Amino acid sequence: MEKVNFFDNELFTTKNEQFFLIHKTKIKKLLPAADVQHVGSTAIPNSITKGDVDIQVRVSAEQFSKAEELLSSLYEGNDESIKTDTFRAFKDDTSNPPLGVQLTVIESEFDFFWKFREVLLKNKNYLEEYNSLKKEYENKSMDDYREAKDQFFQRLMKTLEFKNCKE
User: Fold this and answer.
1) pTM reported for the whole predicted model
2) Which backbone phi and psi does 51 adopt, to 5 degrees?
3) Distance (Å, whole) CA 137 – CA 116
4) What is the pLDDT of residues 63-78, one digit of tens each?
5) Which residue ranges of the chain lie beneath pLDDT 70?
């Protein structure tokens, strides 16, 4: 059973931001029109993190197939994740830190990663709740943590803060 461990994000802030910028540059070279954003816990000060960096690459529906093809030249497809006509996940588990890349069509059903970041940045109570959830699952099953995390974000998507989040 894979166990989950968390760290204070402040331990990695500078390194993770530099890491993000390196990958953003690579992605923008291939996809100049893409909106490339640092998302996930490493993008949120005072958060607890597994230490991996998450990037959301947002493209138009017309660009999606080409973007998927080009990102496949940089990263491994994440076969554990869902794959749709508007969403594709990639990863690089060998990088330090590990990297996750979420390719989404702008305004599609999976174009929410940046919204989660914004809501957590602006709402201390939600961030504290999310950090508490992580502490509860420290050194426990990764699958159980992912299920609890999914429930947390499903609830967050129903809030006014999330619904009113605009670009």
Assistant:
1) 0.94
2) 100, -5
3) 20
4) 999 999 999 999 999 9
5) none
